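S1.2 Input.
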Amino acid sequence: MDTINGVMTALNSVLWHDVVLWLLLGTGVAFTLWSGFSQLVAVSHGIHVLRGRYDDPDDPGAINHFQALSAALSATVGLGNIGGVALAIALGGPGAVFWMWVVGFFGMAIKLTEVTLSMLYRNTDEPDNPHGGPMWVVSKGTALLSPRLAPLGKAVGGVFCITLLVSTATGGNMFQAWNVAEITHAYFGIPGIVTGIVLAMLVAMVIIGGIKRIGAVAGRLVPAMVALYLLAGSYVLIVHADRLPGLLKLIVSAAFSQTEGAGAFLGGTMGYAFLFGMKRALFSNEAGQGSSPIAHSAAKTGEPVREAIVAGLEPFIDTLIVCTFTAMVILASGVWNRSGDAHYGIPPEIVQIAPGEWTLESSPAPILDTGQWTDGESVYMILRAHENPTSGNDRHKIFGQVVAAPNSRTVIEWSSFATPVQPRLESEQLFVDYQGATLTAKAFDTAQDGLGKWLVTLAAWLFAVSTMISWSYYGEQGMIYLAGERSVLPYKLIYCLLIIVATAGFIRTNTELDNLTGIGTGVMLFANVPIMWIFGAQAMRAYRDYVSRLKAGLVGPGHEPPSLEDLISGRDVESQNRS
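S1.3 Output.
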């Protein structure tokens, strides 16, 4: 596993080089300026479109604007909002939150551009079952530019679909399942494999019905789960209200300077705050990946840009609202830089096991401050050794595992740690290695004991299921492009099996998890962003034409908004006999 993780780390260093992140951020800035700050149109006109005032059952498509946004949001509002934000803060510090905001704002323009292109080039040969996404953009777009380029366009579309399937399997599926298994095991002791089997069955029951069932489920599930999560987050922030002004200052200052390590937090440099903030925000709202345009392409509309404007709301809701709530809860609670969860009277001795390789002697576990030790639980202590480029100081973590056998004393067995210098323990403090969503849950617990246990576990299940059902559709469309309709059933079976694989114990630390999801997100960006630049001028022309007609009153709403029940259920666009 160490060899595989090393390969993934090396690949991520290329996919997520600082130059790549700056280029992506520059893409968002460019399309923001090119569109004349389309973010403003998204939060004004987009709301009216979302409310159903422009829905028309005679337009091509399968679901209404609200269901299309819900399906796309169900893919983006997932464990990235709970576990991913915790991961960003744990690795990059408070400054990562600022860069998440930056990506969220400029990501709105990226999202509008890529969805506009997918709507312009979507395949509506079957009006009630459209197909869209960057693979169709590059395939049909290059053919229109020159027939001789058609084979190249199809090939590039195929490459995108391969990267789409990689991201589907990792970030859209395994990341979600792993976090749910982690938090469920941490709070209830349920084996991860059991969680995986239950998740696989729930997902299977939804995805067999295709986009219409996914849209119907997402239309009801997404608003409810987001409202529940924000309500609970508001309660935690009210409890810690006195800390909020200082946190806002900390977020901004840490984005442009080094954050000193304290307690459980090793410390973080500006560069790593930028890196992890960008990666987590992009993983969460998927701006530039080209994934959500696949869901939006199923919307019923005769105006391609109209659905794209709705899509611009995705990063706003996902990153600027939901991710921000999670970040503020974690920072306000103090769990990110907490003191030790247990304390040794006499800390274990450091033992050299080979040249440049060290470990701690196996030792009885000290009494846990709250609760009891669980067999297999991951813990760590802080070492002082060589310079750590992530933290900007010499602090490192050495990990151990709790071994709790019946009728014997609980002990901790330690992993090895490589360093060219003699390491030393910083203190006698022992930390429980709270991973991803579990760290967020502990933050909620600081406001009300048990709140994180029940609310965040419930939210993790809801967010994960919603994300996995939408990402299954993304992968399905990629398989249809590559291998036709016959490939869908085998694909769905493999997709559900991967849920079980992710919860079977092969992934153990947030570093492995970050490597896995980073590859999935990174390869899609490399495939999709060039497509956006090649055809972006067409998207901007279409956008400006629509906005000019909107301002002139030529594309006004055709009717009053439908009832909320009809909107959520999709009955407002059900086919009717109008002859």
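S1.4 Remarks. The mean pLDDT is 87.
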